[in-house]
Amino acid sequence: xxxxxxxxxxxxxxxxxxxxxVTQATEQRLPGGAPTATALINVVGAALMGMFxxxxxxxxxxxxxxxxxxxxxxxxxxxxxxxxxHRAGRWRHALLLLVAPMVAGIGAFAAARSLxx
Length: 117
What we know:
mainly alpha, 5 helices
């Protein structure tokens, strides 16, 4: 079992590099900048997790979902961005940034899982 963890760790790093590259490529092009890019990354990650959940066994789900997508998606950055908007008095935008990606992510996961399952 330790071998699977050793495979998941570098994939986590690759996922994190992918997140940085996607953020850099999209944050200037998207309305809302980096927070919108983070939301998009997390929704795409949820869709990919739905696909992996449909087609992978438990071990590969842990390696790809926990490793690759664990590095690609980011809960902490999402929450810092929500908090920053709230502290700046932009509470409506903060609420939208909190709720919309969560709802979209659940929908993306469910749609991908049913599409590939």
